[in-house]
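FORM 12-B: Structure-to-Sequence Request
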């Protein structure tokens, strides 16, 4: 019986079955690709770490001739690999800027630490000077892959000195072959990087050592260190390092904490992708579910004749889902094939930068579960629809109190009828998809408002550098590792004398220790027009015993405003009261959200003024920063002066994440358009008998069009009234999550233009969607419809 029924149904509704299968394939492929891509991205960094034995910390003594063998001998140290601070440039392909991934300072590279995954080719021979490894971004940007050659331009020994001015390198040329493309947590392309990096061999450093560290080894060799006990051993390691070297001011970066920040960003992007998949799933259930229900109801009518001949209800229910389930199975197979092909382009966003195995990936738990769930849902929905269609009882239709109130108020008939079409589902064959249409309208408006609110936060941070602490337009380095290039007091007088400079300060920069956390301290010098940092809470330091902490350093140290933080330096340990939290200038040893600011006398409590890491000057200007920079730099020696600060990598990461909520909003908007259009067309078709009766009673064509326009307007108004405030709150919450993850100074976003336009645009779109159904409502022949019914 079931097989015979399937053959009959295929002959009658074969095209509809094919269309249903294609709809299921498209919707399910979207859902599977989104969910599998989110899962792949969410695990990317952990999978990369599991394969590469990543470093725990970066140790930066910045001391010529530092003995790393003594560090290797420490009991907590598992592996050490060093890198040279000086880089090189490229002649072929041409790149005037340094593109190196820090040349290795010894042959311990890839030995028990940062063992990279090889995406193409092989690892280089450490004993050869003519082989290099590159990052994926370098290969994409310059078009150089495995087997291609590049020409390296090394600095001369004098150009490699730490105090040398940044000039184009003029040292030896080395012709090298790209033998591999690699990736690890350290050797990874940062967000926003387009050029990538080149990693040379230890043999090249050994052959041209003076070209990397200067004629008398003045250059610096720092190191990546993997600790046996992970991050829990950072503080004991720092104590051992201070005892070994007599230097408690050595900067130690927590690489694991930086990885955790990247994980949080990837998690945000993955959640957006999962929400995209959820929205696609809901849309599929609503739209495809209605198609299945309509098919089943029509097929149940055909079975009524067989019921009279003895077909039992159980046999009818067994036969009804046959064709929809077959369509679902075929659509699911196609969807899995499409999702497998789409895996070549996942993961997306920041996760793509750390994916250890880019390319094809078969997430069979997701694909198998998604395909099985699709078939089960179609079978259950078809069986339930058939059971309802075969029942003889009739359930009273629910009435809307708003429609009843409109009728009592004596509103025009088109308004009352249109409100009924929009708010009352009805029953039986006249039932309308009221709830899906209302929910879709709300969700569509919510998504658009939330996305534009979020985008406003992104645009605000991108156009206002003070959101990440850059409330100064010029910055320059006056000294480096105890070497003074320019007198700070004279420089400050010259800078602040310029009429375009509104505030200027110089600072001595060093590193203090707060347990396992290294704190880069900026000791601000006195100024007539002092520069003030961006504060998120509290105020800046005024007394020697006060400190303003950057937000991430405060979080890692576990302190807040009012707490006392114990800091250790070469001059002993002292307590500093935290009087504020905020952002500070980013430097070679800190991001804008790491470090602290103290007064000059507070700095000298911990660190000798002559033992600084950097001498820095920064200035806030009005007008054209380039013009002010040209005037100020006229008094500096060649190759020195103040320059615009670089934007942080977090800004590029945020810009990479921005398209995901916007894409989700576009999808939700299209879902709302489709649901509203479907509701309008369905109302005209299923309620044509009711409209015919009203037309026979005197309703004009214009009033008939008014019914459909009223229905569309009510759907749009429901979306506006509920969706705008919810979208506003969701958009602000979404931006708050991103601002906290980056972090950025949180300014509540307000997308004024979007809020002003969303209402008129939604109403206009709904009424434009109603034009064609309204015309259909006036073209029906009243007599023919009444005779048919």
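FORM 12-B RESPONSE
SEQUENCE OUT:
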């Amino acid at each position: 019986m079931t097989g015979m029924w399937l053959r009959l149904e295929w002959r009658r509704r074969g095209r509809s079955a094919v269309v249903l299968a294609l709809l299921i394939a498209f919707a399910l492929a979207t859902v599977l690709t989104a969910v599998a891509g989110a899962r792949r991205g969410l695990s990317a960094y952990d999978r990369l770490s599991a394969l590469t034995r990543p470093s725990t910390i970066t140790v930066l003594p910045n001391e010529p001739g530092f003995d790393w063998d003594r560090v290797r001998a420490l009991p907590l140290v598992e592996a050490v690999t060093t890198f040279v601070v000086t880089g090189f440039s490229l002649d072929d392909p041409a790149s005037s800027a340094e593109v190196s991934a820090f040349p290795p300072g010894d042959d311990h590279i890839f030995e028990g630490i940062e063992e990279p995954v090889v995406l193409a080719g092989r690892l280089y021979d450490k004993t050869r000077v003519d082989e290099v490894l590159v990052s994926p971004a370098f290969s994409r940007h310059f078009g150089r892959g495995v087997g291609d050659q590049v020409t390296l331009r090394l600095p001369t020994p004098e150009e490699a000195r730490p105090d040398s001015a940044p000039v184009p390198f003029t040292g030896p040329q080395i012709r090298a072959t790209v033998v591999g493309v690699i990736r690890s947590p350290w050797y990874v392309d940062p967000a926003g990087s387009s050029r990538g990096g080149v990693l040379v061999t230890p043999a090249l450093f050994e052959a041209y050592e003076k070209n990397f560290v200067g004629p008398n080894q003045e250059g610096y060799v720092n190191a990546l260190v993997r600790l046996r006990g992970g991050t829990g051993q950072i503080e004991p390691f720092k104590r051992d390092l201070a005892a070994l070297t007599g230097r408690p001011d050595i900067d130690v970066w927590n690489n694991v904490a930086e990885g955790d920040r990247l994980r949080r960003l990837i998690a945000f992007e993955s959640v957006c992708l999962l929400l995209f998949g959820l929205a696609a799933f809901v849309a599929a259930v609503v739209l495809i579910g209605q198609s299945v229900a309509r098919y089943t109801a029509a097929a149940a009518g055909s079975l009524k004749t067989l019921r009279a001949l003895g077909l039992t209800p159980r046999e009818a229910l067994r036969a009804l889902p046959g064709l929809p389930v077959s369509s679902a199975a075929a659509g699911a197979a196609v969807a899995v094939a499409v999702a497998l092909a789409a895996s070549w382009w996942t993961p997306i966003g920041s996760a793509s930068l750390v994916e250890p195995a880019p390319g094809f990936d078969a997430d069979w738990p997701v694909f198998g579960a998604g395909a099985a769930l699709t078939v089960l849902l179609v079978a259950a929905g078809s069986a339930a629809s058939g059971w309802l269609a075969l029942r003889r009882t009739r359930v009273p239709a629910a009435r809307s109190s708003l429609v009843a109130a409109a009728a009592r108020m004596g509103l025009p008939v088109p308004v009352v009828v249109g409100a009924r079409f929009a708010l009352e589902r009805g029953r039986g064959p006249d039932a309308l998809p009221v709830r899906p249409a209302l929910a879709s309208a709300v969700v569509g408006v919510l998504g658009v408002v939330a996305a534009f609110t979020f985008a406003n936060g992104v645009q605000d941070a991108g156009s206002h550098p003070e959101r990440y602490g850059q409330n100064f337009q010029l910055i320059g380095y006056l000294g480096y590792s105890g070497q003074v290039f320019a007198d700070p007091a004279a420089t400050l007088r010259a800078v602040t004398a310029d009429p375009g400079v509104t505030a200027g300060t110089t600072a001595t920069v060093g590193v203090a220790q707060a347990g396992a956390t290294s704190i880069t301290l900026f000791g601000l010098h006195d100024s007539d027009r002092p520069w003030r940092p961006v504060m998120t809470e509290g105020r800046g330091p005024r007394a020697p015993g006060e400190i303003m902490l950057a937000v991430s350093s405060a979080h890692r140290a576990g302190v807040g405003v009012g707490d006392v933080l114990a800091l250790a330096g070469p001059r002993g340990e002292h307590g500093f009261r935290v009087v504020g939290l905020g952002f500070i200038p980013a430097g070679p040893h800190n991001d804008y959200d790491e470090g602290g600011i103290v007064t000059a006398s507070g700095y000298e409590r911990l660190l000798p003024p002559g033992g600084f890491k950097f001498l820095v000057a920064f200035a806030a200007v009005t007008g054209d920063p380039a013009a002010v920079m040209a005037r100020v730099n006229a008094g500096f020696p060649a190759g020195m002066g103040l320059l615009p600060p670089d934007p942080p990598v977090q800004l590029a990461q945020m810009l990479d994440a921005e398209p995901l909520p916007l894409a989700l909003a576009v999808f939700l908007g299209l879902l709302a358009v489709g649901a509203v259009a479907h509701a309008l067309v369905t109302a005209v078709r299923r309620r044509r008998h009711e409209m015919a009766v009203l037309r026979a009673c005197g309703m004009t064509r214009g009033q008939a069009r008014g019914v459909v326009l009223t229905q569309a307007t009510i759907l749009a108004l429901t979306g506006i009234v509920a969706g705008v405030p919810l979208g506003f709150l969701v958009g602000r919450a979404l931006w708050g999550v991103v601002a906290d993850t980056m972090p950025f100074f949180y300014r509540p976003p307000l997308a004024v233009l979007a809020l002003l336009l969303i209402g008129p645009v939604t109403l206009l779109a709904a009424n434009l969607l109603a034009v064609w159904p309204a015309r259909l409502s006036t073209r029906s022949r009243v007599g023919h419809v009444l005779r048919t019914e």
